[in-house]
Design a protein that fits this description.
27% of the residues lie in helices and 42% in strands. Strands 1, 2, 3, 4, 5, 6, 7, 8, 9 and 10 form a ten-stranded mixed beta sheet that branches. The radius of gyration is 24 Å and the shape is elongated. It is of the alpha+beta class.
């Protein structure tokens, strides 16, 4: 009987390592991943478009990962959003704002004054839930390069 338990212990030995260090490595990967939090750039760019104006905001986002190694080594990705707006100044209702490559209905507003733009947009999901747009915030406005 003791031979059986000896074989069983030898067989399960690699799993004992993963039970001990698995949670520690997961905790470490979560800690490292929080060091690369998403953020929005401080500058937004405005340019003329066919029917109104194009407002571009950019920043960095954490990619979706499916394992601890990707969470540690993935870092952040540069991303941007392009909004179609009808005017280049004043307060613009969210219902007048649209994304270039998506059909989204927004409420809230975009306000452009001097060299500043404030984006405070919200969306309504298919089940009626409401959420803030990740690009909401205040930006310094510059012409498109």
């Amino acid at each position: 009987m003791s031979e059986f338990f000896g074989l069983l212990a030898r067989y399960l030995e690699p799993y004992a390592w993963s039970q001990t260090y698995g949670p520690v490595s997961l905790l470490l990967s979560m800690l490292v991943n929080t060091c690369s939090l998403p953020y929005n750039d401080e500058v937004a760019h405005l340019s003329s478009a066919e029917s109104g104006y194009l407002l571009e905001v950019s920043g960095r986002r954490v990619p979706m990962v499916h394992d601890p190694f990707s969470a540690v080594f993935a870092g952040t990705l540069a991303v941007s959003a392009h909004y179609r707006i009808p005017r280049n100044s004043g307060r613009i209702a969210g219902s007048e704002v649209s994304l270039v490559r998506a059909s989204s209905a927004f409420h809230g507003f975009v306000e452009i004054a001097d060299d500043r733009v404030i984006i405070d947009l919200r969306y309504r999901g298919p089940e009626g839930q409401e959420g803030a747009v990740g690009w909401s915030g205040e930006y310094r406005l510059e012409p498109m390069r």
